Prior knowledge:
Elements: E1 3-7, H1 12-23, E2 27-32, H2 37-40, E3 52-56, H3 62-72, E4 76-79, H4 88-91, H5 93-100, H6 102-113, E5 121-127, H7 150-169, E6 172-178, E7 181-182, H8 191-203, E8 210-212, E9 218-219, E10 222-223, H9 224-234, E11 243-245, E12 251-252, H10 253-263, E13 268-271, E14 278-281, E15 287-291, H11 309-315, H12 323-340
Parallel strand pairs: 1-2, 1-4, 2-3, 4-5, 5-6, 6-11, 7-10, 8-15
Antiparallel strand pairs: 9-12, 13-14, 14-15
Amino acid sequence: MKRAFITGVGGQDGSYLAELLLNKGYEVHGLIRSLNTQKTIWLQDIINNNNFQLHCGNLNRTTDITDLIHDINPQEIYNLAAESDAQVSFIEPEEISNTLAFGPIRILESIKILNKMKDIKFYQAGSAEMFGHAQEIPQSETTPFHPLSPYGCAKVYAYWMTRTYREKYGIYAVNGILFNHESPRRRLEFVTKKITNTLYNISINKESELVLGNLNAKRDWGHAIDFVEAMWLMLQQNSADDYVIATGAQHTVREFAEKCCKIYGIDLEWQGEEINEVGLNKETGNVIIKISSELFRPLEMRFLSANCSRAEHVLGWKPRISFDELIIDMCNFEKKKSTHGNNS
Length: 344
């Protein structure tokens, strides 16, 4: 039985990946900061699985990570531990960098210290934020990085260190450069979750308005379930390489909101222009969507569009869940959550 070690197992990607690996017959060990309900809410369906074990801790001490890897003795390590909101990184750049930039080094150093360079395969979670102000369209594995946030900068550092350990020490270490991937497990700080959650609350008269930033910002949104499968596939190849993972299609924040309104039975109409544009519920005449300049990114990423042909050709990976299906899944979760009184 293969053993896998997942850092950040309590998050969106970590929890889906743990489920995937358990279904494939793995013994799964997960690192989590604390065992409180909020941190383990997405693990409730697997927490009592005999092949799943949680460990408390973080990536701030190499000795702790080394001891943990020694005790678990995994064949695969997936580093998903991160504050995944780029905006937060402007507020706490040092703390973010400590985890995102130096956390991967501590894992790689541990693999080297334990002399497990030929025994452990390592996955590092990269991000489209690394491209930032993209130098070419679409972006591929050869596109130069130009990050626009401390988050993106830390991810670029981790990317190059992962490659350095691969080339210097022969560690099977890969970078997955993942574009936006969403799910019902997204936190409320993310615009997709904010939209699905708030618009549902508006539809049941629990809230009155949704405040957004740039409605015309474009993103490549996929479903996290598809993306964690790509992570796994990267560690199943004969040789290590880096891959861009995305759907290859772009959609605006406006489009995301419009599709949610249709699912919730809200007849949406736009009025006004630019910062003064609003979205009205035609049935009631109430303004339900407003724009705030304060929610515009200080440095907005432009023209992010992925070329993920390498993942398709080498990994045999393609997203199976469409943009519309992603939104339906997220909206249905809000309906189900309300019915069952779940406030997560």
